[in-house]
Design a protein that fits this description.
This protein has one domain: Rossmann fold (3-Layer(aba) Sandwich). Helices cover 49% and strands 9% of the residues. The strands form two sheets. Strands 3-5-2-6-7 form a five-stranded parallel sheet. Strands 1-4 form a two-stranded parallel sheet.
Length: 317
C-alpha cells in the first residue's frame, strides 16, 4: 500500500491538466460495456479518465466526504435534494479542472494510454442514469454519451454476478411515476410482486434507463446528449467509433479500433470464455450469446414487459 501511495503521489506531481476541450460524460449501468467504451476514447492523447467518480471504495470515499455528508453516497441516485445535486456538480467541476482526484484515475497506468498532459476529462458513471438531463443542462458546453446494452444480455450478466435489481427504487421515483402510464404501472407492480428473476432484472433495466429511453423515443434529448448501443459498438466498431468521435469533437485514431480485441481492465467481472472470445474478435458471441440462455416462454415475458412499458428500441428477439 505504501508503494502504491508513493506512485500515486508521484503521478499527481507529474500530471498537468488544463481544460481547454469539452469534457465527455458516459452515462450507463454496470455490465453495459462502459469500460470498453472508456478505454477506446481514452486512447485520445488529450484525454484523462475519471472512472466511476461516485464509487464507494475506501480511497474514493475520502474524496467524496469533502463534498457530501457521511450518509449521502449510495448505490444509485434518485430524487436527491437540490443541495446534494449542486454538491455533485461542484465535485465534477473540480474533477474537470484538476482541483481534486478520483481514486480510479490511475487505473489506466498499465494500459499504456495514461496521459500526463491532458485537456479534457472523460467521466465514466454508473449511478447517474436518472440525472443525465440535469448534468447535460448544467455542463452544457460538454458532451454526454448514454450507453445501452440489450436488456436480456444485461439482465443475465447482472444475475450471474449475484447483484440486486433496483426496480422498486426507480418505480417509486418522481420522474418515472409521472412518465409511466397505468398499464406500465400495473405491469411494474406485477413483476415486482411475482416476476421471475429474469423478469425482475429486465424490469430493473427498463426503469433504470427509463428517463433516457423516453427522451430518445420522443426526440426530446438535450442537444449535447447522444445514444450509443453496445451491440453496434462491437459489430460495427469503426463506423460506430468514428460516429462517436464526430459527435464529441474527438479525432479518430487506429488505436481505438485495436482496443476491441484487448480484454478490458474490467475483465475481472467476466468469464475466461468471454475473455477468449474478446481476444478472438467474436462479435456474435459478445452480442448474441444470451439467446442460448432463455427459452421461448422467457422471451415472451420479456417482450411483454418492454411492450407494456412502451419501450420500442429493442424489437429484435
Amino acid at each position: 500500500m505504501r508503494i502504491r501511495s508513493s506512485i500515486k503521489s508521484l503521478c499527481k506531481h507529474l500530471h498537468r491538466h488544463r481544460k481547454i476541450q469539452a469534457d465527455i460524460f458516459i452515462f450507463t449501468l454496470p455490465r453495459a460495456g462502459s469500460t470498453l467504451l472508456a478505454e477506446i476514447l481514452n486512447t485520445d492523447p488529450s484525454t484523462k479518465t475519471a472512472s466511476e467518480p461516485l464509487a464507494l471504495n475506501r480511497d474514493n470515499l475520502q474524496v467524496l466526504r469533502r463534498y457530501f455528508s457521511r450518509d449521502f453516497p449510495g448505490e444509485r441516485y434518485v430524487d436527491i435534494s437540490e443541495n446534494d445535486l449542486l454538491n455533485m456538480f461542484s465535485y465534477f467541476e473540480d474533477l474537470s479542472s484538476g482541483k481534486t482526484w478520483n481514486s480510479y484515475y490511475w487505473s489506466d497506468l498499465s494500459s499504456g494510454f495514461h496521459h500526463f498532459l491532458s485537456r479534457r476529462t472523460l467521466f465514466k458513471t454508473h449511478r447517474l442514469s436518472y440525472y443525465f438531463e440535469e448534468f447535460m443542462q448544467h455542463f452544457k458546453e460538454d458532451f454526454g454519451l448514454y450507453l445501452l446494452r440489450h436488456p436480456v444480455s444485461h439482465a443475465l450478466s447482472r444475475m450471474r454476478k449475484g447483484w440486486d435489481p433496483y426496480s422498486e427504487l426507480y418505480a417509486e421515483s418522481e420522474k418515472i411515476r409521472i412518465l409511466l402510464n397505468e398499464e406500465a404501472k400495473l405491469k411494474t407492480q406485477d413483476v415486482i410482486a411475482s416476476g421471475s428473476q429474469l423478469e425482475q432484472f429486465v424490469l430493473s433495466w427498463c426503469l433504470e434507463n427509463y428517463v433516457f429511453i423516453h427522451g430518445l423515443q420522443n426526440g426530446s434529448l438535450p442537444g449535447n446528449m447522444f445514444p450509443v448501443f453496445y451491440e453496434e459498438l462491437v459489430t460495427s466498431p469503426e463506423k460506430t467509433i468514428r460516429d462517436i468521435c464526430g459527435k464529441v469533437n474527438m479525432e479518430y485514431n487506429d488505436r481505438m479500433l485495436s482496443r476491441l480485441q484487448i480484454p478490458s481492465s474490467g475483465i475481472v467481472h467476466s468469464t475466461e470464455e468471454a475473455e477468449a472470445q474478446i481476444k478472438a474478435g467474436n462479435a456474435d458471441y459478445l452480442t448474441q450469446r444470451w439467446r442460448q440462455d432463455i427459452n421461448e416462454s422467457d422471451t415472451e415475458k420479456v417482450k411483454d414487459i418492454l411492450r407494456k412499458l412502451g419501450i420500442t428500441i429493442y424489437k429484435d428477439f
